[in-house]
Amino acid sequence: MEIMQAHSDTEEHMLNEREIESCYLGQFIPVHYHHNMLMDHNRMHSFKSAIYHAVKPGMKVLELGGGTGVLSYFAAQNASQVYCVEFNPDMVREARRFLAMNPNGHKVEVIHADAFEYLPPEPVDLVICEMIHVGMLREKQVEVIESFKRRYLARFGGPLPIFMPEAVIMAAQPLQLEYDFEGFYAPIVQFQPTNVIYPGTIELAQPGVYAIMDFSQPVGDAIAWEGQFRMEQGGRLNALRFITKNVLSIVEERGTTIDWLNHYMMLPLATPLDVQAGDIVQVSFAYRAGGSIPSLEASMRAAVVERAGVPVQVRDTVLA
């Protein structure tokens, strides 16, 4: 009895920790943030195009982390049944309210449940999961999908459904970034829309891909990379841009993909590097998918390792 009680207490403690963490990292995103996502044209158009392509008439679809229900609504235009799972009770009410106002909304069943635990009552053809932050940070995309795969196979066997996004490609890029705010110097984390040119942002080298996640295969949550960049121009290297391209759906008949590019995320370099065109800069970092932005910052290192074709003695520089 004592062992059973201890096991129960441990499970309750883990659940409480997850609920606390969810308030900051993942599922309990404020309602107004979901409303802002409805106004993100790039996100909305990309997902609508991908869902309309992927969902064939009669399919059964599951959405994990449904928010306002908009992606489930897109799926319901062709699917015969859509299960929309949402953990935040405020968003459950919002999704049900909005879906009742829209055509085919009756085909969406909004379920108040934890995406880490929910399984549909029947096999599904497609799973939509948009718990995506730049670099797979903060939100629980990887953890939720991998947990779902294990539980789905145990209940229904194979094959697994198609996942949306099907894959994620992540890259980093050295920058010279302006940190002057009306004369106030503040090296802060910044986010930029991908379709806007910022005069204070100078790209010093081409982006380098540091990770590719294919959700049809097992995906681990540990991300570690060490690579080199050749500077295309001189300047003051004081930030890294993180780029996340979500491959929402593969259009095999055209040999193309339908993609969604997250906002760029720029992290400041605590000790800037003066670089020249042709310099080789070595960068390394490591973090866990779903972890915090500071956890990535704390791991980052950058140094000039070659100048004018001559190796340079490496002195680590911390990105923070």
Automatic annotation (TrEMBL):
Keywords: Methyltransferase, Transferase. GO terms for molecular function: histone methyltransferase activity; protein-arginine N-methyltransferase activity. GO terms for biological process: methylation. InterPro entries: Arg_MeTrfase (IPR025799), Methyltransf_25 (IPR041698), SAM-dependent_MTases_sf (IPR029063). The lineage of its organism: Bacteria, Pseudomonadati, Pseudomonadota, Betaproteobacteria, Burkholderiales. Pfam families: Methyltransf_25. Residues 61-150 form the Methyltransferase domain. This is Methyltransferase domain-containing protein.
